[in-house]
Specification:
Rossmann fold, five-stranded parallel sheet, 54% helix, 13% strand, globular, tRNA processing, iron-sulfur, 4Fe-4S, metal-binding
Length: 179
């Protein structure tokens, strides 16, 4: 069975893609998310990612928590912020996959209806060419609800923002505008 390194943003988003991919691959989750802030939020999501991997029955690796690299990469430009964030996390996953001998990589970001799937797939495909590791660009969004239900049964923490300070501020601003 081919080995796949699955970039994992959080436990709830891991549930569905993890189950689907383990049917065809030997899956290892890779928790690399320097975008998540504050550190307490990062830690909470990491603990829940571990809980999800134990439930699914897959291994997990953790990358370094380097928020400075995230802020340098995004350069706070609204137009390219998400692109740079996706690229940072997927490139680290592709590098790690190549370094550890994985034949493929993917990301749990592909399950979220809130993420730019087309952009994620484009970045993944480009990185696959650069690193010589196949990118599995499957649309997991049809399983989003099923994954959320599984996460609730596992009593996983269910966050309501992507993790970065910008998305948190946008969520807060939206709530203020709605009253």
């Amino acid at each position: 069975m081919k080995k796949l390194l699955l970039h994992t943003c959080c436990g709830p988003c891991l549930t569905y893609p993890g189950e689907v991919l383990k049917k065809e691959f030997e899956v290892t989750a890779f928790y690399f998310n320097p975008n998540i802030h504050p550190k307490s939020e990062y830690d909470l999501r990491f603990l829940n990612a571990i809980k999800a991997t134990e439930f699914i029955g897959i291994r997990i690796l953790v990358g370094d928590y380097l928020p400075k690299s995230y802020f340098q990469a995004i350069n706070s430009n609204d137009k390219t912020r998400c692109f740079n964030c996706y690229n940072l996390r997927l490139e680290e996953t592709a590098k790690k996959a190549k370094e550890l001998g994985f034949k493929a990589f993917s990301t749990t970001l592909l399950v979220s209806p809130y993420q730019n799937q087309e952009l994620i797939m484009k970045i993944g495909d480009e990185l696959a060419c650069c690193y010589g590791v196949e990118f599995i660009s499957e649309d997991f969004r049809p399983g989003f609800k099923e994954g959320r239900e599984a996460a609730m049964k596992m009593e996983l923490y269910m966050q309501n923002f992507c993790g970065c300070t910008y998305s948190f501020a946008e969520k807060y601003d939206d709530r203020l505008e709605r009253g």
